[in-house]
Structures are given as structure tokens and as C-alpha cells.
């Protein structure tokens, strides 16, 4: 009777979580864990694993109507999301830097003007998602005063020999809601050295000359007439002459009237911050100034564009990396000096529907070698090695099986095994196992569920990473504790979900299906690297692959987790360089 009560409670919890997830998508992992626990409790001991498939089918079909109703609720909430996006658009038009941070100074969102200030370095920086001032205590102490309720708002002045910034830290009028003030704060940043007004806008709107527009910019930022003239390297008399012409063209007689005319116009709501990347991923400084090596593409025979990165030693040994499910060409170690040091040319193509690459409806794992053959022909690459990371395992082996005369060696990191039987799902942790179950038995629900993960990545990728680290080993925590690695991974994750839930769902469904790869044709040496603390895929998955492949060797890395690709990057490169292969 107690067991029946327990399963009833779990079932009730699952149904409740489905509806709660419609409003709070971060509850998706908890929902999957609940589904996995329910299956474990209801599994018939005498029949064991053999009845697992039917139990899963029954559960998914029972919950399907609730998922559909929750989807309707989620659709109704999209209007709220649209309003938020409109407000974010307004923030991006402001010439002032603006950020929403938490009580630990972690950036929740930033507008483009602030990103521009962060790019210039100096008094403000962003490290591993944390907004830092110089000196560090200046911003932290201001935040502590607002969070504690000692002050409703605090103004901080930062200054060095080159620039000065004024920071306004506020709880956003949350005095009536102390909890909100503790969780979210607003930071406005003004720079006296930045142009808050567009020079082109001043010329077009008021008919000013370039010189008059620059004088107006300086005058609007404050300071004495002599200071403004000095900053433009002109005399005070020349500055006065230009200013007199400005007064005449604008139709005012004094400074206060000029300021009223300027800030009564739409000009002050424009800023000159340019997006240098193709998408909104430019909100992180690391994404701005992306190298040409990362923005290459090739037109496939069927008209699709396939994007790829080509970095490292251009004359080095070619290694083609197959990324994971939520993957892109940007998900690589940021230190290219290691590639040069080891003589490696690293090529990372984005699979159809991942990152910027165009989708390919109805594709299979076995279609991928054709794209690789076209890409390598385009790049003039003869023989090469393949490196499969996580869900890239299937694609690395597919290329090796299809192009055995060209693939010299295969390297698999954090291997995801083929799912040939329901019992193979046991190799995965509970959350990912349930995603694969949904993909296998009720694929129509998968895009709805993937939208949860995608929304979490888009809205707060740092929070998403933290959720992945809840059960992660210390080695994975160290990877994301490195600011450069963390920033590189966040940019790559954002790029991976650019096209939406259907393409990510397609990746999961292909991982859950039969790969249809002839393992017997992978006759070249295969080296598998697997962390013995990997929280996503157990060692049994890698061990299964070794048994399936003719010439495979498994290397367990003590203490390593799923981010083994980053924590042991140089050791991996050394195993792939020509001297190690030959």
C-alpha cells in the first residue's frame, strides 16, 4: 500500500511539474528526474529491464495530454515574453550603459552601450559572468548597501588617467519588495568620454557640419568650455565660433535651451554601438571581434550553406571535430596557441540546423560523411583525423566508416554509445535518459520540451551552466571557473540554439535512433577518452563502443568529467599530432 501511495504522489508531482514548467522552464530537469524515478518504482522486478520499454511508453502516452495543455499555457505566456523583448529593445537604444545584476554582481542582462564600454576595458570588466569594477570593492560595496536596505540607490565614481565612469546602482524601486531588491539590481553607467549623441544624427537632424556636431557632442557631455575645446584639440575661440553656429541652426540662445532641444529630440536615444557579429551573441565581449577563421562557409550541392571554423596551424595536421547536441563551431578551447604548438589544424563544421548551418530536413547520421567529403575537398585536405565529442561520437564514426581511405585515426571524448536496446539508456543520467525516451517513443513532444532548455540558454546561459554543474566533479568546475573557457563555452552554447527547438530536437532524435553505422568498417585506430567522474554518460557506454570496434582502446581519466575536452585539451592534441600517429 505504501508503494502505491508513493507512486501516486510521484505521478501527482509529475503532472504538477508539467504545468509549472509552462511558466518556469528551468523545472524541466526536475520533471525528467521525477519521470525517471516513477519508472524505477513501477518497474516490475521479475521482468526487469525487458519490460522497461512498455512502462516508458505507457507513462509518456499518459502524460501526453498534460504536455499538450501545458503547451497552450506556454503559448499564452509568449505575450509576456514579447513585452520583455520590447523593453530590452528600448534599453539597447539608450546611450547609457545599463545592466541587470544579482546580489553577487553576476550580469543577468546588459544593453549594447554597456557592452561597448566593457570592450574598451579599464574600469569595468566582465569575468565569468560577473561585472567587476576597478577597484573591485567599489561596485561590490554599493551593491551590498542596496541589497541590505541601507540605501535605496548608490552613485559610484570610477576614475583613472584615461577615462571616468559614473555608476548608479539601484534596487529599481523595489523598496516594497525586499526579496526583489536582493535578487535583482539595476546598474546605469555613464562615461564622459563616450559619445552619447550620434555625430551623423546631429548632422542630419540639425543640419550641423562635422566640426559643429563634434562640438555639440562634447558640450552635451558636460565640462567647461576650455575642457571641451582641449579634448578636441582646438582653441577656445574656435570652440565658441562653432557653438555660436550650433545655437543659430538649432534656434536657441543659451546652453540650457540647447540641452532641452537635444534631449527633446530622438537623437539621444540612438547610440553608435555596432554589432560586429551576425547575431545577438555580440552581447558578450568575447563574441565581439570573432576571427575570420570562425566565420567561414561553403555552399553544398543542394544549395545549403555549411558554416565551419578553421583555426590553428594552417600547414598543420588536419583534425575535424564533431560537436555535441547543443554544439557549434565556437565550442572549442579558446587558446589557439596550443594548436600552433602541437602542429594541429582544427576544423569544426556545424551540422545542418546547428549554429548558422542551414537545416537538412529528414537527415540521418549517415548523411554527414557527404558533407565532410565536400568540405575537405573545398579545403584541399587529404588525410585527416576525426575527433568526436559527446553526441559527436556517432558522426565521427560515420565519417570513419564511410571514408576509411582518408580518415587516419579516430578520437572519441566523453563517448555517447548507440542506443540499440532500451537497456542502453542506463548509460545516461536520469535527465538526459528521459529526453532520449521522449525522443524514442513520443518524438512529437520533443520540440516543446527542448524549448525549455533553449529558453534557459538564451535568457541566462550562466545560470544554465550552473545547473549543469550541480553534480559535476571538480575538474568540470575548474573548466567553467576559467573566465576564458567559460566565456568561450557560453558563446558556443548561444550559437548552438540559434535556430530554435526543432533543430535541437532533431539532434536528440538522431542520438536516440539507430545510427546505421557499420562499426566493422572503422578499421583505423580508435582512441576513447572518458572521465571516470562523467555525470552525463557512465563508463559502460564507452566500454560498449570498445567492444563494437575492431581496433579501439579506452583510456579512463581519473577525476575527469564531461568537460574532459577542455580540461585535457593539450594532452588530446598531443595524441593526435602527426608524430604520435606515425
Per CATH, the architecture of the largest domain is: 3-Layer(aba) Sandwich
Q: Which oligomeric state applies?
A: single chain
Which sheet architecture does the biggest sheet show? 8 strands, mixed
Average the pLDDT over all residues and give the rounded result.
81
The counted number of beta strands is 15
What would CATH call the class of the largest domain? Answer: Alpha Beta
Shape: globular
Q: Any low-confidence stretches, pLDDT <50, length ≥5? A: 44-52, 272-290
Please name the fourth-level CATH homologous superfamily of the largest domain. Alpha/Beta hydrolase fold, catalytic domain
**What is the count of structural domains?**
4
- The number of helical runs is 24
How far apart lie the N and C ends?
65 Å
Would you tell me the structural class of the helices and strands?
alpha/beta
Whole-number radius of gyration?
28 Å
User: How much strand?
Assistant: 5-15%
CATH fold field value of the largest domain: Rossmann fold
Spatial order of the strands in the main sheet?
8-9-11-10-12-13-14-15
Helix content: 40-55%
Amino acid at each position: 500500500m505504501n508503494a502505491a501511495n508513493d507512486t501516486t504522489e510521484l505521478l501527482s508531482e509529475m503532472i504538477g511539474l508539467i504545468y509549472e514548467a509552462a511558466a518556469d522552464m528551468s523545472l524541466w530537469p526536475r520533471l525528467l528526474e521525477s519521470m525517471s524515478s516513477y519508472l524505477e518504482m513501477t518497474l516490475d522486478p521479475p521482468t526487469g529491464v525487458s519490460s522497461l520499454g512498455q512502462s516508458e511508453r505507457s507513462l509518456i502516452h499518459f502524460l501526453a495530454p498534460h504536455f499538450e495543455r501545458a503547451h497552450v499555457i506556454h503559448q499564452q505566456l509568449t505575450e509576456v515574453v514579447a513585452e520583455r523583448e520590447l523593453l530590452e529593445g528600448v534599453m539597447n537604444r539608450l546611450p547609457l550603459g545599463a545592466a541587470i545584476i544579482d546580489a553577487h554582481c553576476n550580469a543577468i542582462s546588459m544593453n549594447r552601450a554597456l557592452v561597448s564600454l566593457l570592450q574598451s576595458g579599464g574600469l569595468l570588466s566582465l569575468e565569468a559572468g560577473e561585472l567587476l569594477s576597478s577597484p573591485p570593492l567599489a561596485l561590490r560595496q554599493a551593491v551590498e548597501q542596496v541589497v541590505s536596505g541601507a540605501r535605496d540607490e548608490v552613485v559610484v565614481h570610477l576614475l583613472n588617467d584615461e577615462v571616468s565612469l559614473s555608476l548608479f546602482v539601484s534596487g529599481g524601486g523595489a523598496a516594497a519588495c525586499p526579496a526583489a531588491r536582493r535578487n535583482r539590481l539595476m546598474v546605469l553607467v555613464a562615461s564622459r568620454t563616450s559619445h552619447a549623441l550620434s555625430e551623423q544624427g546631429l548632422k542630419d537632424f540639425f543640419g550641423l557640419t562635422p566640426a559643429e556636431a563634434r562640438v555639440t557632442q562634447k558640450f552635451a557631455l558636460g565640462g567647461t568650455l576650455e575642457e571641451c575645446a582641449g579634448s578636441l584639440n582646438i582653441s577656445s575661440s574656435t570652440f565658441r565660433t562653432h557653438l555660436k553656429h550650433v545655437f543659430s541652426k538649432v534656434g536657441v540662445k543659451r546652453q540650457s535651451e540647447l540641452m532641452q532641444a537635444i534631449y527633446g529630440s530622438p537623437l539621444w536615444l540612438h547610440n553608435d554601438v555596432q554589432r560586429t557579429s551576425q547575431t545577438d551573441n555580440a552581447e558578450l565581449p568575447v563574441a565581439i571581434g570573432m576571427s575570420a577563421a570562425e566565420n567561414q562557409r561553403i555552399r553544398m550541392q543542394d544549395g545549403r550553406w555549411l558554416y565551419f571554423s578553421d583555426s590553428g596551424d594552417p600547414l598543420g595536421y588536419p583534425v575535424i571535430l564533431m560537436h555535441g547536441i547543443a554544439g557549434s563551431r565556437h565550442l572549442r578551447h579558446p587558446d589557439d596557441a596550443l594548436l600552433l604548438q602541437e602542429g594541429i589544424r582544427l576544423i569544426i563544421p556545424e551540422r545542418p540546423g546547428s549554429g548558422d548551418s542551414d537545416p537538412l530536413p529528414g537527415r540521418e547520421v549517415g548523411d554527414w560523411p557527404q558533407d565532410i567529403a565536400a568540405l575537405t575537398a573545398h579545403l584541399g585536405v587529404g588525410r585527416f583525423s576525426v575527433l568526436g565529442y559527446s553526441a559527436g561520437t556517432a558522426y565521427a564514426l560515420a565519417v570513419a566508416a564511410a571514408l576509411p581511405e582518408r580518415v587516419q585515426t579516430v578520437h572519441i571524448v566523453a563517448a555517447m554509445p548507440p542506443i540499440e536496446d532500451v537497456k542502453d539508456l542506463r548509460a545516461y543520467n536520469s535527465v538526459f535518459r528521459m529526453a532520449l525516451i521522449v525522443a524514442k517513443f513520443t518524438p512529437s513532444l520533443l520540440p516543446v520540451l527542448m524549448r525549455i532548455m533553449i529558453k534557459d540558454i538564451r535568457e541566462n546561459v550562466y545560470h544554465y551552466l550552473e545547473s549543469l554543474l550541480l553534480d559535476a566533479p571538480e575538474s568540470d568546475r575548474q573548466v567553467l571557473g576559467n573566465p576564458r573557457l567559460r566565456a568561450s563555452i557560453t558563446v558556443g552554447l548561444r550559437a548552438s540554439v540559434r535556430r530554435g527547438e526543432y533543430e535541437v530536437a532533431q539532434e536528440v532524435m538522431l542520438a536516440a535512433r539507430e545510427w546505421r553505422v557499420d562499426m566493422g568498417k572503422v578499421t583505423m585506430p580508435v582512441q576513447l577518452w572518458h572521465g571516470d567522474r562523467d555525470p552525463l554518460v557512465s563508463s559502460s557506454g564507452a566500454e560498449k563502443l570498445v567492444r563494437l570496434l575492431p581496433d579501439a582502446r579506452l583510456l579512463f581519466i581519473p577525476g575527469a568529467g564531461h568537460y574532459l575536452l577542455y580540461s585535457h585539451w593539450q594532452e588530446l592534441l598531443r595524441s593526435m599530432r602527426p608524430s604520435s600517429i606515425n
